[in-house]
Design brief:
With 298 residues, this protein is mostly beta strands. It has five helices and nine strands, in the order E-E-H-E-E-H-E-E-H-E-H-H-E-E.
């Protein structure tokens, strides 16, 4: 049974709730009013075996936008747990941006302005490039470098193949949260997050603490940067917080600012292989595989 809150238990913050008289009712199930829009361009180039080369490249330029709502999580395969910690593909991303309290929930910051929480989705990689190829080395009969060897010598020289796959993609959007007020932990965006950002890992290491992938001074807490407001928000009494106007304001930052992304990913693997026939329909394979050939730290 739901019992209305009255008397001393009723706080000013409850006036801003969706159901102010019922403190325990939480809007975790916003399904039905959520939507997402995907726009993308896909290009594929393929070269089937010609002169020993097989080649395929695929490039995607995309944009994936959606608003808050648990339907976006439940549209993927359910993997257990409760709704407040997402499911399916959404579980792979640490995404506190939908929740006013800072968890991984599916709440709007402001139920009266659901369009305000329209933003890039947490798995949006703007650009993706995949390249895969196989090349038969030109040694042996009918090849550019024919060999007169026979028997074991011929077996050792011909039939070698080099294979490789290369993948590069943009980083996915991140959510920046701040110390919360009575409404939200969504920050106020007061500058450009990309100002002064270092472009390489080495530059970030040399810059020292506080200098990273984005400009931290572009964000302030939702109660503002005024020292008096900070003092009340961090150590004030409940009555002092209730009387502070900025304690009851929403953050101006979007769920995921487009300029705040994790670093991108680059990876390349390769292999050298050869099949040795030992009879009709029988063979064994030698394979030498190299992972992260570029020795690139992601």
């Amino acid at each position: 049974d739901l019992v209305p809150y009255f008397g001393s238990q009723f706080t000013a913050g409850q006036f801003y709730m969706k159901f102010p008289l019922y403190h325990s009712v939480q809007p975790y199930l916003n399904g039905g009013d959520d939507k997402s829009i995907y726009e993308g361009v896909h290009v594929k180039l393929e070269e089937r075996f010609s002169h020993g080369l097989n080649f395929m490249a695929a490039y995607t330029f995309q944009k994936n936008v959606g608003n808050a709502g648990v339907g976006g999580y439940l549209s993927n395969t359910w993997t257990g747990g409760n709704v407040n910690f997402a499911s399916g593909r959404g579980r792979l991303y640490s995404d506190p941006g939908y929740s006013g309290s800072g968890g991984q929930g599916a709440e709007y910051q402001n139920n009266d302005c659901k369009a305000c929480d329209r933003a890039l989705l947490p798995d949006e990689a703007r650009q993706i490039l995949n390249v895969a190829w196989t090349y038969q080395l030109p040694f042996g009969p009918g090849k550019a470098f024919a060999t007169s060897s026979h028997g074991i010598g011929r077996q050792l020289v011909e039939g070698w193949k080099i294979s490789s796959n290369f993948n590069a993609q943009s980083g996915t959007p991140l959510t920046v949260t701040c110390p919360s007020n009575g409404m939200t932990n969504r920050c106020n965006l007061v500058g450009d997050p990309r100002t002064g950002v270092r472009s390489s890992r080495l530059a970030i290491q040399q810059a020292g603490p506080g200098k990273g992938w984005w400009n931290a001074s572009a964000f302030t807490a939702p109660f503002g940067s005024d020292p008096a407001a900070i003092a009340v928000a961090t150590s004030g009494t409940t009555a002092q917080k209730d009387a502070l106007p900025s304690w009851w304001t929403f953050g101006t930052e979007g769920v995921r600012p487009p300029s705040v992304r994790m670093p991108g990913f680059i990876g390349m693997d390769a292999s050298l292989s050869k099949d040795f026939k030992v009879g009709e329909g029988r063979y064994f394979q030698f394979r030498w595989e190299l992972y992260n050939v570029l020795n690139h730290q992601n």
